[in-house]
Amino acid sequence: MKPFCYSTSKMADYLGVSKDFLLKNKNKLFKKGIHYYEPYGIKKTLWNVAQMEKWITGREENPFKEILNEL
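Structure (tokenized):
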């Protein structure tokens, strides 16, 4: 059974992206309270595993999906 949340470094490894990508896209691609939480402050971000899986597989509405489809 997967945990509910991962740390930024563990989520980056899990998704195969950089930590910087995740952190730079907070409040842009990823929404606070849905994709990530900051229960211990901004320095300790926890990422929702189920929501990030939905986002990465495209089962969640991606704001850039229309742009990517046109390319």
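Helices lie at 8-15, 19-24, 49-57, 65-70. The mean pLDDT is 84.
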